[in-house]
Amino acid sequence: MGESVRFDVEGMTCASCAVRIERVLAKQDGVESAVVNFAGQEARATLANTADIAALRAAVDRIGYSITEIDPDDDRTPVTERYTAEARAQLRLVIGAAILTAPVMWLAMVGPSETWNPWVQFFLTTAVVFVFGWQFHRATWKQVTSLSPAMDTLISVGTLTAWAYSTYVLVTRGAGAVIHTEHVATDGAHVFFETAAMIVTLILVGRYFEARAKGQASQAIARLAELGAKEARLLSDGVETMVDPMTLAPGNIVVVLPGERIPADGTITAGTSGVDESMLTGESAAQAKGPGDNVFAATVNQQGRLEIEVTHVGPNTALSQIMRLV
């Protein structure tokens, strides 16, 4: 079994991006398996000794994304904070785009039939498409140059086509030709500035709600992680010592008293009790446990004294694996 390495991933905008990166990583020499989590903006790969991290970065760069190896000892911005910041940034874009799109929609549908009307639409829509919608065009450039189009490509092509055609009609036929009377162009020369502006605004609204939902989900996961035991009672040569659960290793024996949380996954070697596993299973009734039964980190010992042989700690516990999947 190779070494498990985690990476921060930048540039993903949809689930198909995660699938594309996962496929590229899996094809590289020395990569035994690869999983990309779009919600967590993170990749995890199992690497053999022959794997070259630089080659993995280069392969991902070629398809328009970037990865950075995560040092377990470094402090990282919690994913909840990252999503909160992203949601705030998207909300600012939504507000700005909506302020400019509203008059464009009004001018296009019920605005006065004056020669300045289409020109006002042009300037307002240009700001919406190229300022507030810039993230779509930037992502599209990376996707097209790497021959890997995705959702952003459709958004960018659609809005730019509507804007470019409308601009062409306005410039070549003049504002007088595109003044609408009862919503019909006088000589058949239609402009679609409102379409381009509305598409960008609505997609930005979707991006905002997506970031907000991911932030709320990550907050729930963070609260789940906080339920873990803060200390462990290590039994060594008949002496109990309070230690950090992260310092435990498989094979250690820990003692868990009634009311305490189990610090790691393990197997009961002595004692019987009822264990509350509702945080993992949803079952409200305590589960009867005795010697030979498996127990899991962060569940609660409700009754008797238990001695447990540790089998999995830290990121390898069932709870940690569930959080990674979510």
SSE layout and pairing:
Elements: E1 3-10, H1 15-27, E2 31-37, E3 42-47, H2 53-62, E4 66-69, H3 79-109, H4 116-132, H5 134-145, H6 151-173, E5 180-181, E6 184-185, H7 193-225, E7 232-236, E8 239-243, E9 253-256, E10 265-270, E11 273-276, H8 278-281, E12 287-289, E13 294-295, E14 300-301, E15 306-312, H9 318-325
Helix pairs in contact: 3-4, 3-7, 4-6, 4-7, 5-6, 6-7
Describe the protein.
It is elongated and about 95 Å long. β7 (232-236) and β8 form a beta hairpin. The model is unreliable at 181-186 (pLDDT under 50). With 326 residues, it is an alpha+beta fold. It has a 6-stranded antiparallel sheet with strand order 8-7-9-15-10-13, with no helix packed on it. It is 46% helix and 21% strand. It folds into 3 domains: 3-69, Alpha-Beta Plaits; 79-224; 232-325, Distorted Sandwich (Calcium-transporting ATPase, cytoplasmic transduction domain A).
Outline of the structure:
By secondary structure, the chain is an alpha+beta fold.
Mean pLDDT: 85
- H/E element order: EHEEHEHHHHEEHEEEEEHEEEEH
Rounded to the nearest angstrom, the distance between the terminal CA atoms is 24 Å
What class, by secondary structure content? alpha+beta
Largest sheet: 6 strands, antiparallel
Shape: elongated
List key phrases describing it:
326 residues; single chain; alpha+beta; four-stranded antiparallel beta sheet; six-stranded antiparallel beta sheet; Alpha-Beta Plaits; Calcium-transporting ATPase, cytoplasmic transduction domain A
